[in-house]
Amino acid sequence: MIFESHAHYDDRQFDPDREELLSSMGANGIGRIVNVGSDFAACRHTLELARKYEFIYGAVGVHPSDIEDLNEDVYEWLKETSSDPKIVAIGEIGLDYYWEKDPKVQSYQRYWFCRQMELAREVSLPVIIHSRDAAEDTLKIIKGIHGDEIPGVVHCFSYSPEIAEEYVKLGYYIGVGGVVTYKNAKKLKETVAKIPMERILLETDCPYLSPEPNRGKRNSSLNLSYVVKAIAELREITEEEVQKATYENAFRLFSKVK
Question: Which of 65, 192, 62, 179 is nearest to 127 (CA)?
Fold first, then answer.
């Protein structure tokens, strides 16, 4: 079975066939899914999905590109909602300097990143971290607030193997998705081959980042078999070993999942 650690089935791209698609997961070897919030509306929809489907769990948090959604009232809602038995993480949270170049907004991102990390510490949940073009600041913040005390995964990892090893030393997991199948994904391929198998999670970030041979099309957890195959080839192990290890890894991180 496969554990999908990062999906966005609340996205409107799934509106035409969401129920049919999700109902097919078990028959296609997808055992568990963590649906991840991005803005406030997505968090509310994530909670609804998690309550509706037994195999779906949720993460609630506000993405750095959506921090205009964040205020003290929303923060309190996140705190209250985190106690729901189907909410297993705070995320996705972090920094994104790719889309945002304004130093003032970047500072605001850092503020809410720290606040949501502290929220995770307070409610004893792991974090799902988004970091794009912000490698130095992300690591600096995590180390500065003793992030090694807060379990987590760096979602859609895009940095060097050396930075990945820094996260592994802190006890973090590395999220690997469809990008690992791309020919130009040299750094990610090197990372997957180098870090311990015990620190890798499978993810799609669907509906985005479909693997080859479906690149450019809407992504879903059904495409994780291509990611599994790529990881197996890079590590020279069987696909069954990849599935087993990543499944166990996800259960270890998301300890509320049953």
Answer: 62
Long-range own/partner contacts, residues 193-198 (CB < 8 A, 24 or more apart): 193/234, 193/235, 194/161, 194/164, 194/165, 195/161, 195/164, 195/165, 195/168, 196/168, 197/235, 197/237, 197/241, 197/242, 197/245, 198/245, 198/249
| The pLDDT value given to residue 165 | 97
pLDDT tens digit sequence for 25-45:
999 999 999 999 999 999 999
Give every CB contact of residue 78 below 8 A, 6+ residues apart in sequence: 43, 60, 61, 62, 90, 116, 119
pLDDT tens-digit readout, 126-138: 999 999 999 999 9
pLDDT tens digit sequence for 160-190: 999 999 999 999 999 999 999 999 999 999 9
How many beta carbons lie within 10 A of that of residue 23, not counting itself? 11
User: In the sheet that 2-7 helps form, which strands lie side by side, from edge to edge?
Assistant: 2-7, 30-36, 56-60, 87-96, 127-132, 152-154, 173-176, 200-202
